[in-house]
Write a structure and sequence with these properties.
Length: 515
Amino acid sequence: MGNDMARQGFSPPGRDTCALLGPRQMAAADAAAMAGGMAGTTLMENAGWALANAVAARFRPCRVLVACGPGNNGGDGFVAARYLERRGWPVRLALLGDSSRLKGDAAQAASRWHGAVDSLRPDSLDGAELVIDALFGAGLSRPLEGDVRAFVEALNARREAGAVQVAAADLPSGVDGESGRILGEAAVQADLTVTFFRKKPGHVLYPGRRMCGHTQVADIGIPAEVLSELEIAAFENAPVLWRDALPRPGAQTHKYRRGHLLVITGSASHTGAARLAARAGLRLGAGLVTLGSPPGAILVNAAHETAIMLARVETAAHLQEEIAHRRIFAMLIGPACGLTARTRELTLAALTGTGLPLVLDADALSVFQDNPDALFAAIAARDAPVVLTPHGGEFARLFPDLDRTCASKLKCARAAARRSAAIVVLKGADTVIAAPDGKAVVNTNAPPWLATAGSGDVLAGAVASLLAQGMAALPAACAAVWLHGAAASAHGPGLTAEDLPHGLAQACSRMADSS
């Protein structure tokens, strides 16, 4: 399936700007910077200065409470408090625990703060218009309890009432930096989160992403070269990851060179989903697209389509004939195909009887609910790529144990990709695209109006179109997901799935114009 990231067209210059670092990796990056000669106190000073600058840029001067924890996140808060006070902001500081127990860089940062240090209590919030959460950050691994939980709950209540605004240092306290989960029952809801060097998975995965508000990444002097010492396997989706691999037809390109996509449809009363996928495939650049239907559905499709061709595909034998006759480059099976013997037969025939890139969506996944291992074995036995595009319900049918036990969507998608030997696109507001080798990409540009019937069918068609045009599977899936979100964002509220295929073409055009 291609475990080499560069060979998959997924290692361009600038890729490291999209890296997501788990808490342990971030600690390793700090350590590497210090081993290279940068003092820990300098990193902390830079972090606090960046936090103060970001706060000053976003909020008007007001009464500030800086809530500091007992570790380095609290040290960042001490520094930020000092810089904001220098700007003339009225600043108070409340500390969780005893200042005499602070250690290392945090103790040194605290020693340079000459204002009062109060104990952290819910009533510390009295009079504050802005609260800086510098309690724990991304490294927290246990739920908030006791006094700190009471403080956070009081803070959230005041923010909800409009009495305060909140800025978080690194990550809102109570959010797991690795998974984005809320640890226990409470976490800070921030308006602004300022993180350092690179984002963490918790910034881009829900519910952490919602708790962060607007996330801003600050440079604190850690050289980008330290990333080469880490095993970076997670990224935030962005064009820099796949733009160079997008198909670009030349002046003498003809339709046969641009790829022929075959999309399998359901019965006469279940053809709309496949048509949406086929239109997306054509709009995103496939030179030809054919809908393969049972006999009763051909006239239905003919009444709706002009540029898309039609063919009879009812059995595995029909499928083989069509592939040989039409010179198919890639296939999509699943949208509204039905949970039928035909869907299962055609899916297995495509997997075992062809060497074509294949996208399996919707019913082509759920039809294997009773025996997912049969699907995975067929995928593992082939060399050509397979992309699975499940939403949460379809994922639970194929991977029920992972759905129950995985604490992180990122972990779930990676485990599913390893088990299935396929690229897995686990859809949602924070869609995760994962490869069998552990590489994973989290998408962050999907607007809420994508939650509409048929949008997933369009996405499946977009992935299949890029595969038909020769794009490798991982970048094709990432590009399709990002363009899908860009198309929906450009349209705005009122979006229906019928709007998306044209929107995909426009998103591609805007990208070409900006290159």
